[in-house]
Write a structure and sequence with these properties.
Layout: E1 2-5, H1 9-12, H2 23-34, E2 39-42, H3 44-50, H4 58-69, H5 71-75, E3 84-88, E4 92-93, E5 97-101, E6 115-118, H6 124-137, E7 148-151, H7 157-167, E8 172-176, H8 189-195, E9 203-207, H9 219-229, H10 232-241, E10 257-258, H11 259-263, H12 267-277, E11 297-299, H13 306-317, H14 327-344
Parallel strand pairs: 1-2, 1-3, 3-5, 6-7, 6-8, 8-9
Antiparallel strand pairs: 4-5, 10-11
Helix pairs in contact: 2-4, 3-4, 6-14, 9-10
Length: 353
């Protein structure tokens, strides 16, 4: 993250006096910067003071001195980074910045890497790809990033999000499956818990514009995988996959899409599938009485292991993953990549003295 020390801290913490306040906070922040956990920026005048601040260790003073001396180089990330975490006198969340009142921070706030909270930790493959895609599309070169991975475990995600927020030691970004089966269908239970939660000072979340993480693997890669497997049931899925349309975002890739589910869905959902697949509504319905007894699939299940199977396939076949990002996935990748990069970006380790 890009931590920005506002000039008002000079007066707020009496940094020009013989007894400045919040020494432990500035000490710990210097060590976090030394370790490369975050960028630490601000007006050069504040580093001119911090490098000689009474009460700081020689090590911390040395770190702030390095920032002061190579200020232009350190601040160059500001030419690209579009989200800042500003520390001063007020608490508020804006579109491109979170502001913190130093009085409400712990001495160890921002000493750790930020938290990436996921329902399933294997999902990081896609999120790393989204950052790579964002950097390529914006000609950023390579900006390093690192997160502390947290497992929400589905139904416990919201409770874990609140717990991490309350610690005030690191910022937490949660990514949630929507579980939606069409654009206007209801969100899943986990995502719904977050929906009415405003941005907090120590956390934010993103509900995927897709059923779940499997839907963010380009459909063309699934097509290559199915052709490689030459499985009769999976081959039937090609009729939908090769449409290369928005409906792919809402398919339950792992469990498949049962006609029973669509039969018992809203008219809006039925019409969406009928229109998207260009088939009569009657073709997506069935007469089954119980969902667990229904084997009428409009899209056959590709197994719970499909995400890892596809990752292995991509590696074995040396597939250029990003070259398959299509129009309806591009917006998702760019939005995710932007958020993830500027929340989890990290500086190089600094050598003090």
């Amino acid at each position: 993250m890009i931590i920005y020390l506002l000039q008002e801290l000079i007066d707020k913490c009496q940094l020009n006096s013989q007894q400045p306040s919040r020494i432990d906070f500035f000490e710990n922040l210097a060590i976090a910067r030394r370790d490369g956990k975050h960028f630490v920026l601000g007006d050069q005048s504040i580093f001119a003071i911090l490098r000689k601040l009474n009460g700081l260790s020689p090590l911390a003073q040395s770190i702030y001195n390095k920032i002061y001396l190579r200020f232009s180089t350190e601040a160059s990330i500001m030419n690209h980074g579009n989200y800042l975490f500003k520390i001063g006198s007020v608490d508020k969340v804006e579109h491109n910045a979170t502001f913190y009142n130093l009085d409400n921070l712990n001495d160890d706030s921002f000493c750790n890497y930020n938290n990436l909270l996921l329902e399933n930790p294997v999902d990081t493959f896609i999120y790393a790809k989204s950052i790579e895609y964002y950097q390529i599309k914006n000609s950023l070169g390579t900006v390093e990033y690192l997160w502390d991975l947290r497992n929400g475990g589905g139904t416990t995600s919201f409770a874990e999000f609140l717990r991490l927020n309350n610690l005030k030691t690191a910022y937490t970004f949660a990514i949630l499956d929507s579980d939606k089966i069409c654009p206007n269908s209801s969100l899943g239970g986990t995502a719904s818990q977050f929906l009415n939660t405003p941005d907090t000072l120590f956390g934010n979340y993103k509900i995927l514009d897709a059923h779940e993480i499997e839907n963010l693997i380009p459909s063309q890669i699934y097509s290559l995988y199915i052709n490689y497997k030459n499985d009769q049931k999976l081959n039937e899925n090609l009729n939908i996959i090769e449409l290369n349309s928005e409906i792919f975002k809402y398919l339950d890739i792992k469990k498949g899409v049962k006609k029973f589910t669509l039969t018992n869905s809203s008219e809006n959902t039925k019409n969406y599938y009928s229109h998207a697949l260009n088939i009569p509504a009657s073709d997506i319905l069935c007469l089954c009485v119980k969902k667990n007894e229904c084997n009428c699939f409009i899209f056959n299940p590709m197994a719970r292991t499909i995400f890892n199977d596809i990752k292995l396939f991509i590696d074995q076949q040396k597939i250029d993953f990003l070259s398959f990002i299509n129009d309806f996935l591009e917006h998702i990748y760019l939005e995710l990549g932007e958020k993830l990069l500027w929340i989890f970006c990290k500086s190089n380790r600094i050598t003090a003295y």
